[in-house]
Amino acid sequence: MNHTTSATANDAPRWPTPDFSRLEQPNTARIADWAAGNSHNTGVDRYFGEQVALLLPVGDIARHNLAFATDVLHHALDHGVRQVLVLGCGMPTGPTWRHQATLAHPGIRAVHVDYDPIVTAACTIARQQHSNPASEILTADLRDPDAILASTAVRSTLDLTQPVLLLATAVLHHVPDEHHPADILARYRDALAPGSYLALSHLTPPDKPEDHLRLSAALNLYRSIEQPLTPRSRRTLSRWLSGLDTIPADHHDGPFLHCVAARIPDADVQDQ
């Protein structure tokens, strides 16, 4: 039998086709990018964001979130942590991406996780501008911590026997109660070594009754794009980090955002 080596159109490699239909609907990562004043977003994201901005101070929320992530990142680095795991990293203009110069320092290792392949593709391109051989971009769903913690990206980049900063900023409010976000966070927490840090920022119910009405209307908007938000109380979020050494973060709070960070005590303290 004669074999030919001539490639035809049908023989050409078939590369994965991006799901551009994702760009036709508003996306929470791109909406957050718009709220922070950046450009990794589309017209539909901006239009949706403008509707939300009539109800909530999205710009202030974005600034509080960035300031919180910035402070916790530098606090952890100042205390010797050299590894970062970012859940729901968002577009490459989010909090940790603003500090790529910091994370690119020798000895710093980072893994950025997001479930949206368009987001991680944008992050991969951005990483090329901030070369750091010890950083990885992982397309995965944070609701499956076992898969993420066992992934090649995490296992080859992070040493989980050493302290890690786990950043989960403005992401767990996208996990509904039926998916058990407290249990998900606990699984990550249990995998971290003593001396590690956990940082959360989360949508929270406001104190003023009139603000409750505004929040309720905003939540209805998010239900319309099938990316609902679940606000949770400050007490609930603090309970998620109970037993840890709290780091003061109240000055980053706003009427709709609660920020909480904590450190896992050293082993000898935990054993007492």
TrEMBL record:
<protein>
    <submittedName>
        <fullName>S-adenosyl methyltransferase</fullName>
    </submittedName>
</protein>
<dbReference type="InterPro" id="IPR006764">
    <property type="entry name" value="SAM_dep_MeTrfase_SAV2177_type"/>
</dbReference>
<dbReference type="InterPro" id="IPR029063">
    <property type="entry name" value="SAM-dependent_MTases_sf"/>
</dbReference>
<feature type="region of interest" description="Disordered">
    <location>
        <begin position="1"/>
        <end position="22"/>
    </location>
</feature>
<dbReference type="GO" id="GO:0008168">
    <property type="term" value="F:methyltransferase activity"/>
</dbReference>
<dbReference type="GO" id="GO:0032259">
    <property type="term" value="P:methylation"/>
</dbReference>
<keyword id="KW-0808">Transferase</keyword>
<dbReference type="Pfam" id="PF04672">
    <property type="entry name" value="Methyltransf_19"/>
</dbReference>
<keyword id="KW-0489">Methyltransferase</keyword>
